[in-house]
Amino acid sequence: MKWIEFGVHTTQEAVEPISNILHEAGASGVVIEDSDDLQKDWHGTEDEIFELSAEDYPEEGVLVKAYFPINSFAKETAEGVKQSINDLLLHNIDIGRNEVTLTEVHEEDWAEAWKKYYKPVKVTQSLTIAPSWENYKPVSSDEHVIELDPGMAFGTGTHPSTILCLQALEQIIKGGESVIDVGTGSGILSIAAAKFGAEKVHALDLDSTAVESAQANVSFNRTDHIIDVKQNNLLDSTHEPADVIVANILADIIIRMTEEAYHLLNAGGYFITSGIISGKKEEVKEKLLKHNFVIQETIEMEDWVAFVAQKN
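The structure corresponding to this sequence follows.
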């Protein structure tokens, strides 16, 4: 089978929204080639570290590549994706060079591309994310492992905004909590919450393909007795209170849902927000404080910010 590789040269800031656009357009997978990965200090044991080749990465910025079946990819799809990416400028998101390439690839090449870029990575003190084909084994009794097949999901858990959420969840989840994951995507945050000890997790996403991907990953990680995956627009029609609400989405959307999140949380509950670029930090912080949240922690990685806010 042949595929169309849709590549766009962009910025770190635009990786998450562009990945989401490609996912919603029907992409069967997304590869992220971030030039900063060559300088990043990857923490972990020897079997979790792999050597990166500069030849596989752009000199600067980020290449986001998505794959579409050639028989379903039309000119209209490409133009629609391009327009959606350009529209990110309306949200003050820097899309960088925004150079788009279209390349025909064979399925076997695509399969090998996944294995080339996706290796086990320890993302928190106790959590490792690993591809399913690696047969990764925990190196200690208290290590949690999330196994993913990137062909099933958009998002592999190694983006800074996702890591910030995972680190916050590791600190907050003590056992027995109810959690709502807004914009679950591939379901990583929901699965992590379950692994950390949450009793019940509601994973919500508006996109039906994301719901299918999340459900597949939830089942693969044997957490479907804890996690309920549902198609839903943010917190709309959600009435069951929660101890923790986590949202790794755009800052503007977090701002819109802050009041609703406050009312849904139990007393003393936590609202973990990420996906916030540095330029939006103060705006989100102001909104959280306005709705009586107490900001317990602000954590940052590269140009990304996450807040751990508690219901007052």
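The CA atoms of residues 297 and 308 lie 5 Å apart.
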